[in-house]
Amino acid sequence: MAYVIGVDCGTSGTKTVLFDEKGSVIASKTIEYPMYQPKNGYAEQDPADWANAMIETVKAVMAKSGVSKEDVKGIGISGQMHGLVMLDKDNNVLRRSIIWCDQRTAAEVEEMNRIVGRDKLVEITANPALTGWTAAKILWVKNNEPEVYSKVAHILLPKDYLRLILTGEYATEVSDASGMQLLDVPNRKWSDELLSAFEIDKSWLGKVHESCEVTGTLTKKMAETLGLCEGTIVVGGAGDNAAAAVGTGVVEDGKAFTTIGTSGVVFAHTSNISIDKKGRVHTCCAAVPNTWHVMGVTQGAGLSLKWFRDNFCMTEKETAKLMGVDEYYLMDKQAETVPVGANRLLYLPYLMGERTPHLDPDARGVFFGLSAIHTRKDMLRAVLEGVTYSLRDCVEVFREMNVNVSDMMACGGGGSSPLWRSMLADLYNCNVKTVASKEGPALGVAILASVGAGIYSSVPEACGAIIKTDKVQAPKAENVPEYEKYYQLYREIYPALKAQFAKLASF
Ligand SMILES: Nc1ncnc2c1ncn2[C@@H]1O[C@H](COP(=O)(O)OP(=O)(O)O)[C@@H](O)[C@H]1O
Ligand SMILES: O=C(CO)[C@@H](O)[C@H](O)COP(=O)(O)O
Fold this sequence. Notes:
By secondary structure, the chain is of the alpha/beta class. The chain has 19 helices and 24 strands. The protein has a domain at 3-248 and 437-471: Nucleotidyltransferase, domain 5 (2-Layer Sandwich). The longest helix is centred in the C-terminal third of the chain and has 28 residues, at 479-506. Adenosine-5'-diphosphate binds next to helix 11, helix 13 and helix 15. Its EC number is 2.7.1.17.
């Protein structure tokens, strides 16, 4: 039997899973790390934490599994998108990574529009300038930390920094590179025009591959550290969302998924490139060669629930520890006791600004309709519902773009919650399914590795053999109109507060 490893460098932690060639989990290990928020709207992580977590989790799965290292045929890496890793000529990390949900780059987004023009940016990168994407972050460092910028020799995305550690290669692949805003997305190569306009040296960026291509092999030193063979192949892998698409079988038109991780993403595969001229959803290269995807993003999806847990659910944390169950499971049980609409309480999940559909880094979270009858349980349910309203906003944009979705999968930490899945089904008014494997991105990149290793001949063929549908949640007829009423009200709240968010940000 052949085996493959998938590494997913997420925001809350890095998870490594060892799969057999049929996609069954043999061993899995996650190590968490912090996100630093030095200022309101800033978000950073330490690349050393990612590297340590990858090394320790790979060592752990190999030790736990007892699988012989010769049978591990390949490694795929997935990761949070858009994060900026800057290295000097000796590969030293120059500053903490500014990650995807950081919102400090409003001035640089204006600068990008001034230099290149909004329409040109959309034509080349398939997206308007975005605060969380990598190009704006590079310009921010140039404008604000010239002493750091003067030492830059390499720029990598989070998972590509891990690739460098594994293989010594400076490389990336099309799905994650699409989120740097320096890629010519229709043509799947770096844009010389943009690099020259932003004065970014092309030699700083890695070579761009398709996601299932071999980008390098394990060095002798890393192989010894990890308990693997020197020369084991490392494929391109994918940004976490393109990876989750492969891991849930979303590799053909009509198929889509919703992931609730720290962020929330609604993702649909498209065999032809499809662009929202208003820039409300992103268009990126998919992990299947010569295909694309559209995705809408809620910045603070699982993050909202985690924020609520960490600040208001101390009792659940302690009880969960005593009972040996998951804290989120207890929170879901409490939220289930509250009716649809949270007793007339709405929540806007804009804790880290918002992308789809508002593209507003100044937006902030809101509880709307608080009354003295409300309890913590109502607020908890409102948080879950508010995130789901925001995900529905993404589906509305797809409908406007004529991107038709007939099959919706759910994944990510929040996708494991039956309550959250039933909210999705009610608000989308369609079936929401899960796949038997819960490993989303890690499985996706392990599948890419199995294609790179020649175990399967294509990504769709591998998905056909490996991905199995598990649970199906149908919409509840009585809930659909009730949620629709609240959703329509939810849609009115942001426009009414837009100017006030900007004013607050200016204080
Ligand atoms: N049982 C659950 N019920 C509801 N939400 C959950 C549950 N388990 C995890 N979550 C949510 O999933 C998030 C973590 O998802 P994950 O996919 O691991 O994140 P990331 O990819 O950002 O590291 C948590 O912040 C939490 O909001
Ligand atoms: O910014 C995006 C997609 O554009 C996020 O999806 C990040 O890629 C982070 O993902 P999680 O850590 O929440 O999975």
